Sequence to fold (516 residues):
Amino acid sequence: MKILRLPLLLVGLSFAMLSTSCSEDGLDGINGKDGIDGQNGQDGKAGEDAALLLDTDMFFDKSIIEPLVTVNPSFNGVKAYSLLTSVDVVGDNFQIASTVDGAGLIKDGEDGFIYVVNCEDAKAIARLRLDKNLNPISGDYLLNSGVADYSRQCSGTMWEKEIHGGDKDVFLSASEESVSNVVKEIDPRIETPNPTGDYGNKALGQFLWENAVPLPKNTYPGKTVILGGNDLDGGQPILYMSENGDVDRTNGKVYVLRTKQISDGAGGIIDAPAGERHDESDFDLKNTYDVEFLEIPNAKNLSTNETSNYYKNTLFATSFVRMEDLDYQKGNDENARNIYFAVTGKGAGKGTVNDQGNVYKLVLDADSPLTGKLTKIISGNDSDKGKDGYLRPLQSPDNVCVTENYVYFQEDPNGGTWNRGHAASIYQSDLQGNNVRNVLDLKVKSLGNNSLSIVESGEFGALTDVSDKVGVPGTFLLNIQVKYWQDNAFKALDGHDGPGESDRASQIVILRGLPQ
Fold:
């Protein structure tokens, strides 16, 4: 792998680990709370054993830039390795574009992998080919900002034929803030990409999409079920369902969530009055409420505004303050009915019903995905101070990764939400939102003439469990939006130079030994 040596790098790049910052000390209280429980000792021991292994052909820093994360000492079994940073040149001329976000990994023959990754602010989708040890070989762009319906490509999920059905893999990329707010369907194996092609699927509906997550084909046999997040102030979970088999993404119906129950204001639960929109203030922390998904008729032919007007004024869909990413529990098909999603909130001090952010658990009923139960399991809002599930350090949860035993939620401090004294963090909780621990933080360091402030420093994109594919338990890929590192050399790396090109860096990191 070649390295692009930018002038800004002449200031000096240190590969030494940074000392623990004051912001990290502020998070130690979370770990202390976990110490009371002491239930995860066995997992910690296993992770510790992994950390004692020597670096191998798979686990070493492949980029000139060290991994821009600081792992919490309590996760002493977790090691981070840099895979790729925007300054690295792969093959002849590939560089990863600005602000990596959603992603998916699939096998490429017997000896390699294809990693498809959204570059959010670059409005592009990259394809990176890796060898069997996750070493970068080559790369290209499946979509660039020259496409007619260009948009920020946010979270994304790989539809894998072995898991979700059909005879081909498809990358589902969530688009938001564009002329056409649709999910783009990209062929990850296409021989010759057309980066300005029309890949939008209006059948899933037009929203400010934040991920489109298909459930495994056997979770609801004979049905295609895809869940998404509507990242609008007043948005909510989206559900697409077709009863025409497990691989029909064009002839189904589109639904949005409405709660059937709300809080009575005194810790109890009452039926939600008809003809009213309810919001996050109607859910008490750790209480569980009945919910349903209501259909938006003819959704494929409605614009974003028409869709929004219908679910607000006709369906009275429940309002969340900027719903973001979601994921389902792994392990078996039944577990996949347990959905977790992040609601990022409006930002510190904005005075809304959710400023700091919340994390929810949605359990879909076994006989139908159109009904279920919703629980707010974690809250960063001071209105919940003193309650079980309150997490004071939390600032704008965004991405979510769920394994068989844990929920990982990643921060995107936005709207001025750096009010908890630390850069973006990743947390681990159990499946009920308890025993919350800080896993790691974004490392803010000198990479040249860049700001060292935690404000606007960056966020985390997708965290993807790739253990089964690479054959090493506890192996994850983590995308990092390094917003504090800006340089004109990072613009137009997708091959299209247009107005508003982002100059912020990206990094992809391998995590080893993270509990599943």
